[in-house]
Amino acid sequence: MNNLWNRIVYSCWSPIYDWLIAWPVFVNGRKQAWKLADVKQGEKVLLAGVGTGVDLQYIPDGVCLTGVDISPAMLKIAQKKSARLGKPIQLLQSDAEHINLPDHSFDVVALNLILSVVANPTACFREAARLTRPGGRIIVFDKFITSQKPPSLLRRITNLLTRPFGTDINRSFEEMIEGTDVTILEDRPLSTGSAFRAILVGV
Fold this sequence. Notes:
The chain is α/β, with parallel strands linked by helices. The protein has helices at 3-13, 17-20, 24-37, 72-85, 121-131, 153-162, 173-177, and strands at 44-48, 64-69, 89-93, 106-112, 132-143, 183-189, 196-202.
């Protein structure tokens, strides 16, 4: 997985992406993450890996929104969705590991279904932490392996099939944030034994 390949893959996925992530596990995960975020009017929010703008529907009005994505095709759809929902957003083409914005620019940074996608998830998380103001928060919804045991043989084989399509199912959130000065405030699996988690991180 690398940024060039991700740009190609997600440009291909863009016409059907909203359909692909309409499954209950994805809808419920995003809802849980935004509930944890508890975004207030007037706050500045960054959607890292904004994609087609799926998260916009879960964000209250009166929020200052910025979104970045590596795929121009995804950004075009997000722009149309923003206009349709009446939720203005500044959209920038960028990979989520290197965002050309000042330190501490946001109250909330959302990393929903992005840490399993980017080439370097540790760099992506550190960039999110850099962009979050002290006292702000990062929300994460994604699939992760448990830190207590390595992935099973079946999961490792499955990962060989999923990676070319733009997602790595064998990443550890705990390893990604190691060495970053943050605090996990909430960590909720979507169901017992689920790899999908909604996580609230304090900066």
